[in-house]
Design a protein that fits this description.
single chain, alpha+beta, two-stranded antiparallel ribbon, 2 strands
Length: 65
């Protein structure tokens, strides 16, 4: 989201990168199922395990905290 705003107006880059300007955003998503899980460390990255039935499916991940 920051990259898109920066593309539209380069002057926003310094404003949007400061933590006090981070706001919660409401998303409305329609789907089949929802899981709530904690991201676990995996090397230099994070990992979330999902059911094998979801392999090959399109998913959306939303960070809630």
């Amino acid at each position: 989201m920051i990259a898109r705003k920066r593309e539209l107006n380069p002057n926003l880059s310094s404003i949007m990168e400061e933590p006090q300007f981070i706001r919660k955003t409401k998303f409305e998503v329609y789907g089949e199922e929802m899981l709530e899980k904690e991201v676990k460390q995996s090397g230099n990255s994070g990992r979330v395990y999902l059911p094998p039935e979801w392999i090959g499916k399109h998913v959306k991940i939303i960070r809630i905290e």
